Amino acid sequence: MTLGYLNIKYHSVVVPYDDEATPISLIGKKMLPILKTEKQAMPESLDIMSFLDQGNALKISEFRSRSEFSTFESLINDIGSLVHSLAMPFWIYTAEFNESSREYFKKKKEAKRGPFKDLVTKQSEFISLIQPILERLEKEFKPFYGSTSMTVKDIMLASHLWGLYSVPEYQLPTGLHAYLQSVKSECRFNYQKPLWELT
pTM surpassing 0.85? Predict the structure, then answer.
């Protein structure tokens, strides 16, 4: 999303989840995303975003230095945890996974969250927890999060909320859907495009 927003040309490579060798060879550990340039490879989303934003359009460093950053990061973590519990059992059937990487992912994530089949049976419970958060979020859209223009907060927030589109039979609130489509437009971003290119 940052690359698209800043209109930087790039090539996206989807690394299979069970491919430990590629990230380890690039940055010394299994971690994604990784930005690879002619001179270096670097992990950590916010560090990558800061590196890319040479013109300071998103004012990432300023935001990270303010006290509100930790509060916003807590909100993102709360949302991310619930979105992952809702979406993970369905993500493994996207084109990103083959049989080997699907089993690897499932084993890793079930060790932390419990069996995926149990997550699916608890879907209504997770939705009841995330719904009040989403309702509060909708009140902050102006049309972006607390702003009339895009900020780094929108990229952080939308990158988690996109996962809700993967949950069958879950209907995103109208305001949330409109917000995500606005972010998509500003970032020249197509959530599924890298996966379509795999097929």
Answer: yes
